[in-house]
């Protein structure tokens, strides 16, 4: 074990001649290498902080500006200090300390540095002003206007060269606060197709009253917050939507991502874990060094990167009233769960990251370990799957001292959590429906005690080598985790690869310390809490009706030939499918990002529009389809550019609660259920996945649980030209929903008929 290995580094015996000290040179070497690695990491962070702090300038730019200024001053025969030292000499005898030539040089350096700082400030200000313009989004695909082309050239000109991940953070504009009048107008338009005349007239009256009376007062506080903070939405969204929820986060908040659909790189569980863990740690290294390129729209327009900061070394910590996010700057280990036991696995040895074959070696040791779980250990993670208050109380009572605290710290401060699952999951072409359904449910909730749902993400590797992710939603949105997952999948079979017999490439380490078994002392009272949490979690998991199927009759290739946005097309398909299923429309949520702004997260696109409803009800389909698609695209643009409805109304409601005032309008708006909650999983690193050359490297995408008890959760991913994967969830307990009905009888039929 690692602790035992380090414990023998220093040994001493007391003799009549004094203390005889014995030093283990290998252990001292490991201490030295570990410290060297730590200081290298600190230096890199410091350097990156400097580079990001002066971007779009650079230290080399400082040298150029200072040298250029000094050359100009010499050529023009002017004082490089611009009289700085002459003025200073009236107050103190400068000549006693610095010669005249030294004064000119020092003054030139100071003035040149000031000029360099001024240039950086101007470039940042101009870039922020440029990025506040969003007219480029209204150009039709493939038809860029002259004005947009000029704007793109200016953005590139002021963006600097070779940006790092966080280079643009200080140049991104703040999320604007829409006018109350505009928000209420858009809201009324969004609910009009869902209400009869009497309901709409009543809601219109509430909206107008709010707009004239309480709204302006709440808006003033919101404006003040928008001036003071980087983003007026994100901190309240994280706290009130996620951290203050007292129900289970399993199913209700956590989501999952799947493996390749058709490719199975190896059948060895330990080997797949070795490559995947190493790839994830290499991604973390790039994050720490800010070597990842910031996501750029049109390869030019930067997106906010702030959500990446808490991807690793992060855990949600339960509280009685509200949870908290715990993030540590550095973690050198992961925690692995297998058959009821927890193992701490160090990721570094000899001052370097373990190679894939060495990680596989550690996983093999865990798989070969035949020890039994300690009392209460097997189902311990069920605490993270049940209600938050029992978990918070149990944590403070039973895990605040001794070995329990040490072991819990190891879990919560791990880089991430790994489960070596003892079940087999895989897409089976002979049984596609049931195989993918089982696979999705296993990733979403597993056995309810074999995932640590509080961790930023869980890597799950199944017995047959298939794998997947389960991610906690508070710290970031799905595209951030998707970015990591795309790299893990791309690096696994292509770049790192496997030997012919399925092992990771490389050699085992002859003296690598083995994994450390975490120790627990869980009393019967705590075991009772664990059992209660497991009972709650099992009931929730059993209620999930999950259904996935790859739709391969056509994809975005055919949709684009119809001159329609693929996303808009699918959203309209969902409206038609839901209407055929239920005979009515419902409030529909589609997630859109607001990362064009600093610390932006998401906004809601209300996809059930008047135009979409007109398309569903009438026979004049093609013209109405295009109108509905254009309307949806317009709503998507509004959401991305800070003109959405729901985040503004949410923040107005939060202000009203702080002020202790009631708003019938806001209370009713925020109580409306989202019976159709949808999200597209984007492919962000298209250079990693050339699906034209390698169509077999398609992923199944990912999904989430239903938001409303009587509603559907629909996630979809558009892959290549001819594949769309749908993930649909609902609850068995609701007589209103059946996932298979929505998918097979409606979505599949609608998709097939709409293209004719």
UniProtKB/TrEMBL annotation:
Transmembrane feature ranges: 50-72, 105-127
Domain Carnitine O-palmitoyltransferase N-terminal: 1-47
Active site feature: 473
GO molecular function, one term: carnitine O-palmitoyltransferase activity
Pathway linked to the protein: Lipid metabolism; fatty acid beta-oxidation
Alphabetical keyword list: Acyltransferase, Fatty acid metabolism, Lipid metabolism, Membrane, Mitochondrion, Transferase, Transmembrane, Transmembrane helix, Transport
Location(s) in or outside the cell: Mitochondrion outer membrane
A GO cellular component annotation in the UniProt record: mitochondrial outer membrane
Reaction it catalyzes: (R)-carnitine + hexadecanoyl-CoA = O-hexadecanoyl-(R)-carnitine + CoA
Topology of this chain in the membrane: Multi-pass membrane protein
Official protein name in the record: carnitine O-palmitoyltransferase
Originating species: Pygocentrus nattereri (Red-bellied piranha)
């Amino acid at each position: 074990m690692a602790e035992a290995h380090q414990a023998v580094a220093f040994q001493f015996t007391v003799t009549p001649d004094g203390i005889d000290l014995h030093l283990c040179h290998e252990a001292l070497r490991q201490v030295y290498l570990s410290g060297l690695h730590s200081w290298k990491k600190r230096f890199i962070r410091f350097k990156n902080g400097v580079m990001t702090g002066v971007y779009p300038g650079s230290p080399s730019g400082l040298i150029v500006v200072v040298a250029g200024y000094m050359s100009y001053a010499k050529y023009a025969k002017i004082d490089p200090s611009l009289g700085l030292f002459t003025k200073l000499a009236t107050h103190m005898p400068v000549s006693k300390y610095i010669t005249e030539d030294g004064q000119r040089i020092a003054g030139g350096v100071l003035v040149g540095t000031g000029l360099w700082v001024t240039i950086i400030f101007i470039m940042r200000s101009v870039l922020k002003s440029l990025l506040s313009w969003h007219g480029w989004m209204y150009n039709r695909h493939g038809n860029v206007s002259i004005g947009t082309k000029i704007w793109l050239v200016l953005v590139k000109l002021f963006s600097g060269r070779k940006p790092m991940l966080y280079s643009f953070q200080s140049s991104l504009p703040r999320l604007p606060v829409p006018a109350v009048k505009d928000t209420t107008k858009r809201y009324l338009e969004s609910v009009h197709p869902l209400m009869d005349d009497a309901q709409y007239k009543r809601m219109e009256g509430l909206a107008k009253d709010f707009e004239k009376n309480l709204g302006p007062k709440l808006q003033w506080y919101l404006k003040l917050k928008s001036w003071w903070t980087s983003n007026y939405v994100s901190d309240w969204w994280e706290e009130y939507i996620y951290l203050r929820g007292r129900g289970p986060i399993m199913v209700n908040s956590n989501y999952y991502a799947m493996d390749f659909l058709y490719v199975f790189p190896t059948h060895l569980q330990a080997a797949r874990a070795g490559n995947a863990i190493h790839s994830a740690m290499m991604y973390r290294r790039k994050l720490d060094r800010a070597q990842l390129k910031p996501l750029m729209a049109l390869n030019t327009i930067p997106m906010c990167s702030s959500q990446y900061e808490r991807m690793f070394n992060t855990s949600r910590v339960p509280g009685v009233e509200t949870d908290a996010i715990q993030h540590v700057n550095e973690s050198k280990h992961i925690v692995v769960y297998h058959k009821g036991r927890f193992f701490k696995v160090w990721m570094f040895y000899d001052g370097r990251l373990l190679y894939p074959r060495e990680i596989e070696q550690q996983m093999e040791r865990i798989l070969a370990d035949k020890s039994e779980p300690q009392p209460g250990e097997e189902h311990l993670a069920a605490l993270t799957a049940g209600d938050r208050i029992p978990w918070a109380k149990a944590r403070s009572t039973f895990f605040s001292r001794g070995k329990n605290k040490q072991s819990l710290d190891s879990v919560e401060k791990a880089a991430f959590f790994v489960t070596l699952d003892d079940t087999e999951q895989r897409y089976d072409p002979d049984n596609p429906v049931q195989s993918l359904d089982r696979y999705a449910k296993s990733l979403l909730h597993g056995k309810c005690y074999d995932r640590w749902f509080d961790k930023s993400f869980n890597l799950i590797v199944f017995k047959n080598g298939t794998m997947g992710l389960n991610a906690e939603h508070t710290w970031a949105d799905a595209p951030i985790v998707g970015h990591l997952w795309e790299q893990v999948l791309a690096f696994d079979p292509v770049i790192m690869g496997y030997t012919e017999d399925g092992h990771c490439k490389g050699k085992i380490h002859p003296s690598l310390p083995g994994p450390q078994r975490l120790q627990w002392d869980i009393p019967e009272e705590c075991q009772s809490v664990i059992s209660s949490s497991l009972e709650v979690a099992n009931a929730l998991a059993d209620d999930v009706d999950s259904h996935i199927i790859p739709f391969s009759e056509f994809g975005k290739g055919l949709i684009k030939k119809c001159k329609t946005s693929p996303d808009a097309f699918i959203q309209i398909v969902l409206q038609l499918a839901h209407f055929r299923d239920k005979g009515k429309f419902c409030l529909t949520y589609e997630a859109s990002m607001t990362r064009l702004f600093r610390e932006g997260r998401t906004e809601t696109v209300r996809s059930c529009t008047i135009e979409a409803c007109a398309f569903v009800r009438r026979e004049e389909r093609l013209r109405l389809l295009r109108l509905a698609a254009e309307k949806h695209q317009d709503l998507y643009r509004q959401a991305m550019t800070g003109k959405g409805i729901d985040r503004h109304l949410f923040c107005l409601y939060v202000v009203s609660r702080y002020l202790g005032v009631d708003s019938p309008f806001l209370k009713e708006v925020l109580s409306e259920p989202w019976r159709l909650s949808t999200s597209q999983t984007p492919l962000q690193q298209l250079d990693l996945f050339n699906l034209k050359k390698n169509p077999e490297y398609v992923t199944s995408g990912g999904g989430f649980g239903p938001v409303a008890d009587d509603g559907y959760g629909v996630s979809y991913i558009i892959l290549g030209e001819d594949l769309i994967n749908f993930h649909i969830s609902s609850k068995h307990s609701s007589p209103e929903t059946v996932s298979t009905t929505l998918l097979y009888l409606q979505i599949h039929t609608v998709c097939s008929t709409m293209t004719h």
